[in-house]
What does this fold into?
Amino acid sequence: MSQTWSPTSWKNFPAAQQPLYPDSGQLSAVVKQIKTLPPLVTSWEIDRLHQDIALAQRGQAWLLQGGDCAETFEQCQTEPIASKLKLLLQMSLAIVFGARKRIIRVGRMAGQYAKPRSSDTESQGGVTLPCYRGDIVNGYSFTPEARIPDPLRLLRGYERSALTLNFVRALSEGGFADLHHPENWNLLFVNTAKGEAAERYKELVRSLGDSIRFMETILHESTPELKRVDFYTSHEALHLDYETALTRESVRGIGFYNMGTHFPWIGERTRQLGGAHLEYFRGIRNPVAVKIGGSIQPEELIEMIDKLNPENKPGRLTLIHRMGRNKIESQLPPLIDAVLREQKTVLWVCDPMHGNTVSTAGGRKTRRFDDIVDELRLSFAIHRACGSTLGGAHLELTGEDVTECVGGSRGLTESDLESAYQTQLDPRLNYEQALEIAFEISNQLSQQRF
Ligand code: PEP
Ligand code: CO
It folds into this structure.
């Protein structure tokens, strides 16, 4: 890897999973235009998240990261965005009760539009077309026209990200996020939901109200910290031309930031040591994450850590393991041991979703709720046994009432999947399942305290 980094030095390295545009001139014109548009987030916000992640590495905070597998342009609407935010706020409340430490809330939101695929093409009924790579690249419909990568979609993606972020920011700063009024976070359909997790959540809200009133009576004043929340954005920084267009030098002259998101991550399919994504990521000042699946070897992991965080700076690097319920026990311990032995400062986060995807007989992609819970529990236990700590969870979820993952307290079966299967890509936890996971995390963290 060459020593001189620039926002485009990645172009000297092989870049996996990039679309092939028929008209490269049009791509350059769009990238040039995006470069002139304002950033979506600021370097100060990014630095604040950096510090929060450093806190989590010291065990003083916990990271909750979640959202859709892929956002779509069509779902950039009031309800889906607000519901996702409500769900993440409810989950963080459930977790904080067990953890008794700060929860860092991060959405897979406002830019999660580019997807890595296992095959470049897709075949249906004897017809083969380029695969769908996410709304920022091409269309989902199975037609030759829709599947042609269109550079103008980068601009639409930037705009949709800005619209989403504007709404999320307004909600997190204003009365909506006020802890005195958690009823604002109720989801529209939830009054009718009688699940165990929903009941537990209602109980928690009642006791929270009592605690806040008690504290404010003692203090004789209301606490402004309770009236707003910090909320950060993240996405897989996959499409390197797009990410470069949003990579800007800080006005403070301290280097380059990806100002299209607070917390970009490198996916399992693009983390090659000699690849373009690692080269791009090593030079930006954001806190960054890497997904690691079972095939990574300890030496490779250490080399990757050294490239991304040569000075071993706190807060800089998060490792998101996504091994799968059946592989985590053999694959995770050697990685943890290597990180401890080499004294690398990382935040360990568990993604219990991506190693647990299975296909039903009917050809639907699903995940079993029990596998997800098992992988989470095993993660807590493995870290504890190795002398390390699990510092967060990375989940695919939605505030919509979908049926995509099987199991959970409502006992969804494979035949229930058809009733509200909406994802175009990976299956997400629905409201009840996500809340159940939050209580499980809360439970695990409360045990850690004693
Ligand atoms: C994802 O997070 O949607 C994803 C593709 O994950 P991974 O890179 O871990 O496979
Ligand atoms: Co996914």
Summary: The mean pLDDT is 94. The chain is about 40% helix and 15% strand. The longest helix spans residues 196-219. The CA atoms of residues 364 and 417 lie 8 Å apart.
